[in-house]
Amino acid sequence: MSYVDGMVAAVPKANKAAYLEHATEAAKLFREAGAISVVECWGDEVPKGKVTDYYRAVQAKDDEVIVFSWITWPDKATHATGWEKLMKDERMSSMEMPFDGKRLIYGSFDTILEA
User: Fold this and answer.
1) Of the candidates 65, 68, 89, 97, which lies 20 to 30 Å from 15 by C-alpha distance?
2) Is residue 80 part of a domain?
């Protein structure tokens, strides 16, 4: 089954166009490295919780929107070699993020159900 990288970030509302440009360029690199797909989602209906929520997870400020993203790889091995290539790619290392990358949360996941 596929292997997935998931990310949540807080992006300034004013940086939506810059974020989309950044994500489009990054997606090309991920696809070159073997990813099956890259999905970027701009927060629309993201509720604030009483105990925890996306906003708290990334310490979002009032002028920021939650972005939810994932990259699908065919398998864990492709993920590992893909990231190895990406970390050596000058295009990746020279990219400027239009958000605070220190508050980005991410992880890699084994798929247990695809329906």
Assistant:
1) 89
2) yes
